[in-house]
Design a protein that fits this description.
This protein has helices at residues 25-35, 44-49, 77-84, 97-103, and strands at 2-8, 13-16, 19-20, 39-43, 58-62, 72-74, 91-93, 107-115, 124-125, 134-144, 147-156. The chain is α/β, with parallel strands linked by helices. Strand 2 (13-16) and strand 3 form a beta hairpin. It binds NADP nicotinamide-adenine-dinucleotide phosphate. Residues 6-7, 14-15, 18-20, 42-46, 49, 62-64, 77, 94-99, 102, 124 line the site of NADP nicotinamide-adenine-dinucleotide phosphate (NAP).
Length: 157
């Protein structure tokens, strides 16, 4: 089963020049805690944006060429989705924009850190989805460095 995890601004922005738009310690902590000891799946650009492998997690990169430092490279995305969509294990889809869009129809749960700020220089966005088709649970509301945020869990109804 697939779960998406992302942090978004008011305009669904997630990335800028290959990096994150917003850096909140509490969001990072939530990401670490939620994905720890699980498998994480990401696109090549997100992999390249990281300093290295995310520790305590199985790192899978979706790419047409082998990514030697990853735990696994997936070249055939439709087969990967088919083989893992109905497993009991929660597999976390961690970005970026291309990958979120590809997995959105297959994800049961979306964890979104919704940050009450925008950045007009952002160049990568979370796909639009119909929130009415999901049960919404507020996990946490907070403020850091003057930025208000809510961590929200969306479960497909
Ligand atoms: N805010 C957040 O929560 C968050 C999370 C993660 C990332 N980000 C940000 O998002 C940005 C990166 O996102 P992105 O949309 O540019 O890239 P991405 O989704 O990370 O990766 C896209 C790349 O993955 C490969 N890929 C995707 N689908 C594939 C398929 N079906 N088969 C084979 N390869 C496939 C392709 O690489 P090739 O074309 O080279 O094969 C594609 O260009 C960065 O700015 C990053 O910081 C934000």
């Amino acid at each position: 089963m697939f779960s998406i995890i992302a942090s978004v601004g008011k305009n669904n922005e997630i990335g800028k020049k290959g990096e994150l738009v917003f850096h909140l310690k509490e969001d990072m902590e939530f990401f670490r805690k939620t994905t720890k000891n699980h498998t994480v799946v990401m696109g090549l650009n997100t992999w390249l944006s990281l300093p290295g492998k995310l520790k305590n997690r199985k790192n899978i990169v979706i790419c047409e060429k082998d990514v030697p430092k990853a735990d696994q490279t997936v070249k055939d995305l439709p087969s990967f989705i088919k083989n893992n969509q109905n497993t009991p294990e929660e597999i976390f889809v961690i970005g970026g924009g291309v990958i979120y869009k590809e997995f959105l129809p297959y994800a049961e749960t979306i964890y979104l850190t919704e940050i009450d700020a925008s950045d007009e220089k952002a160049d990568t966005f979370f796909p639009i989805f119909d929130k009415a088709k999901y049960k919404t649970t507020l996990i946490k509301k907070g403020s850091e460095d003057g930025l208000n945020y809510s961590i929200v869990k969306y479960n497909k109804i």
